[in-house]
Amino acid sequence: MEDMTVRDIVEATNGTLLCGDEHTVVTDLCINSKEVKEGDLFVPIIGQRVNAHRFIEQALEVGAATLTSEHFAVSAQKPYIKVADTCKALQDIGAYVRKRIQIPVVAVTGSVGKTTTRNMIAMALTSQMQVFETQKNFNSQIGLPIMLTRIQHTDEIAVLECGMSEEGQISILSKLVQPKYAVVTTIGVAHIEQLKTKENIRREKLSITDGMDADGILFLNGDDPMLAEMKGKLPRQICYYGTQDWCDFRAEQIQYDNGRSYFECVHGTERTQVELSVLGKHNILNCTAALAVASTCGIPMDVAAKEFAYFHGMRQNLIQLENRFTIIDDTYNASPDSMRASLDVLCHLETEGKRIAVLGDMFELGENSKQYHYEVGCYLANLPVSELVVVGEQAKEMARAVQNSKCGIQTYEFSDNEEAAMYLLATLMPNDIVLVKGSNGMNMDKIVRLLEE
């Protein structure tokens, strides 16, 4: 935070200073007492398992000040600021700082591809601008306010990711960040357990416009049927990107070679050749979204496109073990759409060995979870994959679909990651490629670590 004092925090939160100096300078926010730095304001969040108020004294050994919703009187050298709700106060601080920030914000949301698209937009904009980008996975009602406070006066534009865990959160985040531009990547079935239908998910994702400037622009994926349906139905200026011939920015002449993607990005009469350092149609769509945003911000597409030959995202990490096999580590999370996208990447990689898919359970899919798993198996059955290894009860539906298809793909079922890893270590050969993917709670990164070791 720049030029912030305890007095500003009190004003932002409508709080009460219980003790300490109101002129104390605050340089950052922190919600983890173990990570508090000199100058930090500690924000003790009351979670489902832990009430962080118990760590206030520990945090103030290093930090500058603290919020509290549980103290009514205290005598201490460092400032205690009484607020009604520390989580709401955190958002109030973010909103207070946002009013000081004059730069435009690009907000990114969607069921799949948020982080990669955010990364790509930031990379495209960096070709000519000073860009602030969401750090790590700080995309929630707790994380986003912290991100807003870290924007510097030297930044010219911010690219912020907006995630959700329950209905109504995207609207709250949009009103907090007040985007000039917003991107919706896909409408999938992630969170369908809470929101029940894809129409409800779409409504939630499109609420990213609730805090948008009146002259703001909404970027939608024209290849997503749920978003394509909204053409001409929203009271917003909309720019579509995708591979459809009616999209404002579209990818044509798509080719894959040696682990890289090549395509032509077309906008009106402008055509730009793009070399992208990762595989997959989904990544081409993410890249096209980034080029659309950059172009709208005044950066020539050919200038922005040069950045993508060196792109390295957080997802689908390619690990090539010398004289051994290759691992596609995509264990961060999983949904039916991202499963299909990762399987496409596996099949686009050229090899003389086997292609092996190691897939785990997908969470939060509601009452139709088994059906969604079965559909992924049906998709896999039509791909040039040699083996399917599944971990978890729900993932067995993928194996059942493959078996029912009689496609010839070998299937193996395991109850835990260690068993699956031991099987793979005993059978993998040089030139084999193995994709490892499942929901974060499946901890399938353990398989990757065991294979690497």
Descriptive terms for the model:
453 residues, alpha/beta, Udp-n-acetylmuramoylalanyl-d-glutamate--2,6- Diaminopimelate Ligase, Chain: A, domain 1, UDP-N-acetylmuramoyl-L-alanine:D-glutamate ligase, nine-stranded mixed sheet, six-stranded mixed sheet, 16 helices, 33% helix
Brief summary:
The chain has 453 residues and is of the alpha/beta class.
Describe the fold and architecture.
This protein is α/β, with parallel strands linked by helices. It has helices spanning 6-13, 56-60, 86-100, 114-126, 143-149, 169-177, 192-195, 198-206, 225-228, 281-296, 301-305, 336-348, 369-380, 396-405, 417-427, 445-452; strands at 4-5, 16-19, 25-26, 28-30, 40-42, 65-68, 80-82, 105-109, 131-133, 157-161, 181-184, 217-221, 237-242, 249-257, 260-267, 270-276, 317-320, 326-330, 355-360, 387-391, 410-414, 433-437. The strands form 4 sheets. The chain has a 9-stranded mixed β-sheet, sandwiched between helices. Strands 17-18-22-19-20-21 form a 6-stranded mixed β-sheet, with helices on both faces. The chain folds into 3 domains: 4-88, MurE/MurF, N-terminal domain (Udp-n-acetylmuramoylalanyl-d-glutamate--2,6- Diaminopimelate Ligase, Chain: A, domain 1), CATH 3.40.1390.10; 101-310, UDP-N-acetylmuramoyl-L-alanine:D-glutamate ligase, CATH 3.40.1190.10; 317-452, Mur ligase, C-terminal domain (Protein-Tyrosine Phosphatase, Chain A, Alpha-Beta Complex), CATH 3.90.190. Helix 3 packs parallel to helix 5, helix 4 (114-126) packs across helix 10 (281-296) and helix 13 crosses helix 14 (396-405). Helix content is 33%, strand content 23%.
